[in-house]
Amino acid sequence: MRSSSQPALKRQKLNPADAPNPVVFVATKDTRALRKALSHLENAARRAAGLDGVKVKSVLPLRPLGAPLLPAPPVHPASTSEPIVLED
């Protein structure tokens, strides 16, 4: 086994070309637990997201009859009951 003369933090440094975004993700115990909690389908989709031309077979749950396709947007109360008129 070969030992490295560089400290552990130095070995983990990313190449700027590989990570152009200044934000670097570091996994914690909580994020690892969340990743392990993903379902098989979610894991397959996550793996296939980085691969071109990979077919992912998925079975979508059936929606109940009469359910809307998209949820209704939230209704925000108006600050005034009068109409707003914009004049040029």
TrEMBL record:
Its protein name is Metastasis-associated protein MTA2
Lineage, broadest ranks: Eukaryota, Metazoa, Chordata, Craniata, Vertebrata
Spell out the residue ranges making up region: Disordered.
Answer: 1-22, 66-88
Q: Which domain of life is it from?
A: Eukaryota
Gene transcribed to yield this protein: MTA2
